[in-house]
């Protein structure tokens, strides 16, 4: 492969030699130190290749061997460049391309962040920009150790961070802190969170006060964190489970009867190429319009490229559209369902009664749920 590359860079001539004595021709080339390669005999014809500087001597050897020499091709970089010698733009373009390649290869164009879990990539990128690390910066201005220390100080959730530059790509590997302080939980009682009929109670730690089944009221002591013994009373962090049948009432009202009507939209696009912002129109928000922007990056083989486009959208609204009865009912049911899912989460619904009257939706639910909650014991 290396020999072929050298032949391509220096150029070579493909030839055929017809008639005469092929064996004598090859021996003369060897004796005259004429470089030939890829020799292939076809009857009384030889095919091969030689360098441009040795072709004149090759003709002399062919005449001595009684063979006629024909050129079948001129290959390699010198012959390709000779075709464009009158086109001055080609060498200038090649020189400009090489110059841009050298200049751009010395900068960071892609920042790849790995190990993000609790934090977001935008948070890490903002912290990097605060340390003057962003796409388009010269690679020589990157001080990895100083930036790592600054990131650990600015982002308390980080446990470890490493910056590794690979060409024009900066790999940022982070590990988030998972250490939590093992503090002794404060002493507490277990009380009832709401009124209900207690069906089952389990005590994991503490002294059980009530026995199931029985009716309990909100705030009633179920499991005490104070244990009495011969040497006095000790306080503990009580824990347990109390299952009870409770009743809850939810009420939801629809106040919005109209929504704004969009009349037209205005889109503006800007390109980000190698850190340069190329706006295709004014990206400023229009007066009286709702405005937002989003950015999309180009990718190749799963890697983000230093090319993206930003879309700026302004939406104009005019007047109000009234909701129909069916739309109001559907919206009211949706709001009530979301409120019920949030407030009744973790409870088993035994029975439910839901009523819709005008712009109001109310429901009465009979639930089976855990009503045990902790109440800290205050010590003076």
Secondary structure topology:
Blueprint: H1 2-10, E1 12-18, H2 22-31, E2 36-42, E3 45-50, H3 55-64, E4 68-75, H4 77-83, H5 89-104, E5 110-114, H6 121-130, H7 144-154, E6 158-166, E7 169-176, E8 188-192, E9 196-205, E10 207-208, E11 214-216, E12 221-224, E13 226-229, E14 232-235, E15 239-253, E16 258-273, E17 276-280, E18 289-300, E19 303-322, H8 325-343, E20 348-357, E21 360-370, E22 372-376
Parallel strand pairs: 5-7
Antiparallel strand pairs: 1-3, 1-4, 2-3, 6-7, 8-12, 8-22, 9-11, 9-15, 10-12, 13-14, 15-21, 16-17, 16-19, 18-19, 20-21
Summary tags:
5-stranded antiparallel β-sheet, 380 residues, 8 helices, Ubiquitin-like (UB roll), Alpha-Beta Plaits, alpha+beta, 4-stranded antiparallel β-sheet
Describe it for me?
- This protein has 380 residues and is α+β, with helices and mostly antiparallel strands.
- The chain is built from 8 helices and 22 strands.
- Among the domains are: 2-81, 2-Layer Sandwich (Alpha-Beta Plaits); 110-176, Roll (Ubiquitin-like (UB roll)); 258-322, no CATH class.
- The chain has helices at 2-10, 22-31, 55-64, 77-83, 89-104, 121-130, 144-154, 325-343; strands at 12-18, 36-42, 45-50, 68-75, 110-114, 158-166, 169-176, 188-192, 196-205, 207-208, 214-216, 221-224, 226-229, 232-235, 239-253, 258-273, 276-280, 289-300, 303-322, 348-357, 360-370, 372-376.
- It is elongated and about 125 Å long.
- The N and C termini lie far apart (87 Å).
